[in-house]
Design goal:
Neutral Protease, domain 2, Immunoglobulin-like, alpha+beta, 7-stranded mixed beta sheet, 6-stranded mixed beta sheet, 3 domains
């Protein structure tokens, strides 16, 4: 047994006395086997491994919309590349439209009830019992190989297995075709991410078409085939590839789409072509390519002819488009470090004047800010399409709400809501369209990360923007709610209970706290950008994010991921007690025997909890160091110099209790007798030896009149009433917090 010096024994005794014997829940233990074992595909650093691989799927598609019957008909040729080390006996294809088929598991697995007052709108009653005349789902007409021979296939709800006559080995490719059609859904009646909106005043439709073609499922090193059924909440895991798409619509329609338009001279007027060319060099404001007057004129006619718009897109995971004769169209160029994508908006007159004023500007602001925090935007266009009561994203194009009233008037709430949703949906180009996480499994990896950068965009590009998700104070009502209705962030999309709070707000807030309070902007921004660079156009998992953030910053964050992402604890730290000490001064004690009755050590109740500083300070007697404490050391400290150094200093012993369970940094604001203030920031690791109660002593030159924990509300502490000393002191910022959080 090794010898332990007397000094070490004393230190251990003091440490035990200070930290106590509180319950130890291993909040600072490493995630260890909670994360998957690193391998040659995904390294322990969070980077893709030397043998990382992913599949590829290229599409050639012809699609037509019948504007009279609202039926979409399509045919596609898919070439699938097996880059995996595995032999594939079959392929899985996603049939997402089947979520609305008669035998869909979505409606069958949803719970339902009738209102207590026995009063319900007819439309809601129809949805409650799933009674609708809508005939949804894909109508598969043919599945053939490249030689035109029929392939054996099995449809299981929203998934279709195609059986291969010959197994695909590593490096093989396989080309096959699918013919299909489906009835486009009325989003007002049926709902859905894609569909159409009908405008009864002019008898026109706006089609926002998504999940419209059979799409290859992902096969990867994590899950094999990601063929988890689509029930409606968990979105999509998709394979990158190149697209060539021909879209046939009435010739008076304007089409907005993923990709680059290949035949403008065939589908645009000479004036529209000229304006589009002007937009490519307009960096200060949008250029109207189709004006409101021109769109209004087309609303009154119906073309008898058709046009086919051709779009190409490279290295995208999906494809969506919108079509209507009602669309106004504007565009503006954006300079992203020499790349010059077009920011564009398409909207009916019902969106004006708000959309003409704000939509493309929001697209521009999004591309600039997201490129700063992730990678430079790589695609040729970024499009915002106006659609009622929706926010939904696809590569290069998204569908967004925000509509003035009939007179064209709108409130700040409507304006900010529209700007926020455009930033969010355009931002999805980065998460998950480029940094391609599995939405079917982990909603937060795209929604949460995206909401975080959305918050950064709102704050950096707009003055006093009322961001709803991101600020720590806004998550408090959710965090302190009934835990039986809260699940960890690391929960599958279909099992989440409070979708917006769990998948959007909480992870966005967690990342904001990680950036501002735990890591600091410099370390966080570098690591977050490194994650984006490593996993752009690849398939990251949560472990890849967690590991990269630590690898690129040298900050151990396992405690943070465990608390914020794997648990449901909340932050509630109580500033339980504050004691004031000074070094004992013999002269002062002799001369002030009577007046020193205020000193706790002399006239107060030592050890009793203080309510304020009115009892004055306790005295500490500094003794000479016992020689035994030096152990084998021969040199000695100057005890008198230490007494002199601290003669007029103030020592404050603070006691903190962690009643919420979630460990957190401590931000302490001191107010001194001269009115000045000072902030101390203590890392969360202070809780590593006792996760329930800790004490810490602070040295201050000046006397303190007030102590506030988390003064700027940056840790999401759910109870600020116990964050001040004296308790009577309640800074105005806390009153503002209580008002905002409805306390």
């Amino acid at each position: 047994m090794k010898n332990i010096s007397l000094f070490s024994i004393v230190f251990l005794f003091v440490q035990s006395a200070v930290f106590g014997q509180g319950k130890y829940e291993q909040k600072f233990e490493q995630l260890g086997t909670t994360l998957p074992t690193p391998n040659t595909y995904r390294t322990g650093s969070g980077a893709p491994g030397s043998e990382y691989w992913q599949q590829k799927a290229d599409y050639e598609i012809n699609v037509e919309i019948n504007d009279e019957t609202q039926v979409l008909t399509g045919s596609e040729k898919i070439t699938y590349f097996n880059n995996s080390p595995d032999v594939l006996e079959y392929l899985w294809v996603q049939l997402d439209q089947n979520v609305r088929s008669k035998d869909s598991n979505t409606a069958l697995s949803q719970t339902s009830s009738l209102p207590a007052n026995n009063t319900i709108p007819g439309r809601f009653l129809q949805k409650t019992v799933n009674d609708t005349d809508y005939d949804g789902g894909f109508k598969i007409a043919a599945v053939k190989n490249n030689n035109g021979q029929g392939l054996s296939y099995t449809i299981n709800k929203t998934m279709m297995r195609i059986d291969l006559n010959k197994p695909m080995k590593t490096g093989d490719s396989f080309t096959f075709s699918i013919d299909w059609s489906y009835n486009i859904n009325d989003r007002m009646l049926v709902g859905g991410r894609g569909g159409y909106e009908y405008f009864p005043k002019d008898g026109n439709y706006s089609y926002t078409i998504a999940q419209w073609y059979p799409r290859m499922a992902v096969y990867d090193d994590v899950n094999g085939w990601q063929n988890k059924q689509f029930l409606g909440s968990g979105e999509f895991a998709l394979t990158f590839g190149d697209f060539k798409v021909n879209i046939t619509v009435p010739s008076d329609h304007i089409v907005a789409s993923t990709g680059s338009l290949q035949n403008p001279e065939q589908v645009l007027t000479a004036t529209e072509q000229k304006r589009l060319k002007e937009a490519r060099t307009s960096f200060d404001k949008p250029v109207l390519i189709v004006t409101m007057a021109e769109a209004k004129k087309k609303e009154k006619t119906r073309a008898k002819t058709k046009s086919t718009w051709t779009f190409h897109a490279e290295n995208v995971r999906d494809f969506a488009f919108a079509s209507s004769r009602k669309y106004i169209w504007d565009a503006q160029a954006v300079d992203i470090n020499g790349k010059k994508p077009l920011a564009m908006s398409f909207y009916p007159k019902e969106g004006n004047p708000l959309w003409e004023e704000e939509s493309t500007k929001a697209v521009v602001n999004t591309l600039i800010t997201y490129s700063k925090y992730t990678i430079d935007y790589p695609y040729p266009v970024a499009i915002s399409v106006h659609a009622a009561s929706i926010g939904m994203e696809y590569p290069m194009i998204c569908f967004n709400f925000g509509r003035p009233n009939e007179k064209g008037k709108y409130t700040d709430k409507v304006k900010h809501g529209m700007i926020g949703v455009i930033i969010h949906e355009v931002g999805h180009n980065f998460f998950p369209m480029i940094i391609n996480s599995d939405e079917r499994q982990w909603t937060w990896m795209d929604e949460g990360l995206n909401t975080f950068v959305q918050y950064r965009t709102e704050q950096e590009q707009y003055e006093n923007f009322p961001s709803k998700r991101g600020p720590a104070r806004n998550i408090v009502p959710y965090m302190k709610g009934d835990k039986s209705f809260i699940r960890p962030i690391m929960t599958n999309s279909e099992q989440i209970l409070q979708f917006g709070n769990n998948a959007y707000a909480k992870p966005a807030t967690a990342l904001s706290i990680l950036r501002e309070t735990v890591m600091g902007p410099e370390l966080f921004d570098y690591a977050f950008k490194e994650y984006a660079k490593r996993w752009a156009f690849k398939h990251p998992t949560p472990a890849d994010l967690f590991r990269t953030m630590e690898d690129a910053s040298a900050v151990d964050l396992d405690w943070f991921w465990k608390g914020w992402f794997y648990g449901t604890d909340h932050v509630d730290v109580t500033l339980d007690d504050v004691k004031w000490f000074k070094i004992k001064n013999e002269k002062r004690s002799l001369e002030n025997k009577i007046s020193d009755a205020k000193i706790t050590n002399s006239g107060g109740k030592q050890g009793a909890q203080n309510k304020d500083f009115s009892n004055g300070f306790e005295e500490i007697a500094l003794t000479d160091m016992d020689p035994r404490y030096y152990g084998e050391f021969k040199n000695r400290v100057d005890d008198n110099a230490i007494r002199q150094r601290y003669a007029d200093k103030n020592f404050y012993e603070l006691t903190f209790k962690n009643t919420g369970g979630l460990v957190t940094p401590l931000i302490i604001e001191w107010t001194f007798s001269d009115g000045s203030k000072e902030i101390d920031k203590i890392p969360a690791e202070i809780w590593r030896k006792n996760e329930n109660e800790i004490k810490k002593v602070f040295l201050k030159d000046k006397e303190v009149t007030n102590v506030v924990l988390d003064p700027n509300l940056e840790t999401a502490d759910t109870n600020v009433e116990n964050n001040t000393f004296p308790r009577a002191a309640s800074p105005s910022k806390f009153d503002q917090f209580k008002k905002k959080s409805g306390k």
